[in-house]
Amino acid sequence: MGRARLARLHGIATSYEPAPGRTVHIAEETAVAVLAALGVDASTPQAVRTALAAHEQTAGRALLPPTVTARTGRPPRLPDLPDGTVLSVRTEDGTLIGAEVRDGTPHGGTQHPAALAGLPLGVHDLRADAPDGRTARAHLVVAPDAVPAPSGRTHGFLVQLYSLLSRRSWGMGDLGDLADLAAWSGRALGTGFVQLNPLHAAVPGPPTDPSPYRPSSRRFPDPVHLRIEQIPEYAQLAGDARARADELAARAGELRADVLDRGALIDRDAVWALKREALELLGTVPLSPGRRAAYCDFLADQGSALDDHATWCALAERHGPDWRGWPAGLRDPRSPQTARIRHRLLDRIDFHCRLAWFTDQQLAAAQRAAREAGMAVGLVHDLAVGVHPSGADTWAQQDAFAGGMSVGAPPDAFNSRGQDWGLPPWRPDALAAAGYAPYRALLRGLLRHAGALRIDHVMGLFRLWWVPQGRPPTEGAYVRYDGEAMLSVLALEAHRAGAAVIGEDLGTVEPGVREALAERGVLGTSVLWFERSYAATATAADGSPLDGDDPAPASTPEPAAAPARILAPGEWRAGCLATVTTHDLPPTAARLTGADVALRERLGLLAGPPEQERSRAAHELREWLGALTRHGLLPKGVRDEEAVVRAVHGFLLRTPARMVGIWLPDAVGDRRPQNLPGTWDEYPNWRLPIAGPDGRPHTLEELAASPRLHALMRELSSFAG
């Protein structure tokens, strides 16, 4: 009982419900391991008693929690404080505001009768001085009630950037292609946004993990996405450097031809080898005075975070990409050994800082192109749920991550084995102690050049399933985060950036989470195939499948229970991004033709006998064809693939959804998923270019001229932007 109580005091759930009416209690060994990751020794009964006593003593003496939140126009959420406690707030701009607790309520005196209810937005310092001599300090986050909403209703494309090749890219889609897609689609098609895969920095290879959901760093984008020729210094190359750059560009043309004309997979490592050498050449070109000043401003703005990231990159060149195996002194970013090697590696650190600057500039140019093309939102960036345990972020911010833990999902009705995604979670206590500074900085960086942000597995703002290292996912536990604080920080940073927020809320969502997100203006994610009326369950009240965006190889089966009915368009929620499919699900043409079942059968991924799976898929398709016909979107008896694709998107237009996303491969009839959960080497996840029905890759230029794409977009022409 003592250990369970200790776990609950530290936000660890001692049980969970994998199915309605079934409660599973976590193992004591799990509780001990998770507590240890939070810095609490619970290994013996005496240790438990000591930890409980320490917690009670600390709680009894504490006046304030590490972080306090408030919403605009309302006083902070303060614990009960003794009358006579003097409160003082030092705001971000240095203004000092005071109040005194009387009758349990802070009063600001005659000049500021509601001082703590009218605090400006920001992260301020709060101090409390009690009459008994106790003193406490806390971070005070004052946030708006909600994140900004998209301007009107809008529609746009969803695309994995690497898959979008033009005849100018170096073997994979790049930021030049992104700017061109935004400029073309905004001007010619009236789209309002382009939603991307995470562009986070990857752990370097070879081989580099191609998944964008297992990055080295979420704080900085990956320079592999650079369009080399658009870096101003490229035009200044001369002599041997110019000749070598031309050779590299020619070799990049061969890589591009391999993918577009000869059926090769996208080879990120080969692309990066060429770009890296080209970038080394650009490093020899002196910056002009204006460019040098802009670079210095960027360095000052990014501060120690960029210095740490670039240092990790430089050290990884010498010692490999897993910092846990580096010489002992270098595993600590603040050690004397690391300080000395920073000095010795200044040139390499500057090289990696410059790459971050180049990438930031091209991201800014892409968002500028989107807005100039009339897009209401522009770029929608994607925040992965975590980072690789050996990468730059975990090295630089070790205190913020729970060592020996991995994020995953518990067993449930869809997956009896649970999931382990191999991503270390943030420590909620460390975030609170730091005033959520790591989280704030992460959001601020992602929102620099974004009109909106998609948050993968948004439920993680409230709780995450922690799996102790070496144990199966079945032996994990849910750890609670302060959802109000996480949402307040999100609302503050989104407000400052003027950006909307989309939460990927598919899968297991605990009661109240969707309501809390909606109350703060965070849009949900609704996928056409899963918007049905189901009998209520504890795991997926909306009938959604498991979270298909999770980075671990895990199946994404359809709901097992028979649905009551397909939801009519008017029954959809308005506060969502509505899509027909996603990057983890079969393209629409694959569902319509049965190619998705055939692929999973070939790879041994079917949940039941092939005949049964084909019958189930055919039955579901007949249901949808009937629904489309009843709603007047598809003439009776018409089964033409392109007509059905247009009809399902027309169905989305009839919903009240604030945003409608068109999976770009759907627009040209691609039958191949970009990622097939449940596979690793068996399927080329994250390495396929956008292709037509026959599997032939389509360039950006061909997409822009595609009759099939234009016919689909004409279906959207009545959409109110």
How would you explain this protein's 3D organization?
The protein has 721 residues and is an alpha/beta fold. Among the domains are: 2-61, no CATH class; 67-143, Immunoglobulin-like (Sandwich); 217-355, no CATH class. The strands form 6 sheets. The protein has an 8-stranded parallel β-sheet with strand order 19-16-13-10-9-24-23-20. A 6-stranded mixed β-sheet has the order 3-8-7-4-5-6.
Topology readout:
Blueprint: H1 2-9, E1 15-19, E2 22-25, H2 28-37, H3 45-61, E3 67-71, E4 86-90, E5 96-102, E6 105-107, E7 122-129, E8 135-143, E9 154-159, H4 175-189, E10 193-196, E11 200-201, E12 217-221, H5 239-262, H6 268-282, H7 289-319, H8 336-344, H9 346-372, E13 378-383, H10 392-396, E14 405-409, E15 419-423, H11 428-433, H12 437-446, E16 452-455, E17 463-468, E18 477-480, H13 483-497, E19 500-503, H14 513-519, E20 524-527, E21 532-533, E22 565-566, E23 576-579, H15 588-593, H16 595-602, H17 610-630, H18 641-654, E24 659-663, H19 700-705, H20 707-715
Parallel strand pairs: 3-8, 9-10, 9-24, 10-13, 13-16, 16-19, 20-23, 23-24
Antiparallel strand pairs: 1-2, 4-5, 4-7, 5-6, 7-8, 11-12, 14-15, 14-17, 17-18, 21-22
Main sheet?
8 strands, parallel
Overall pLDDT, averaged? Answer: 93
Q: What is the β-strand count? A: 24
Distance between the termini: 58 Å
Q: Which blocks of ≥5 consecutive residues have pLDDT under 50?
A: 109-113, 535-562
* SS strand fraction: 15-25%
Brief characterization of the structure:
The protein is built from 20 helices and 24 strands.
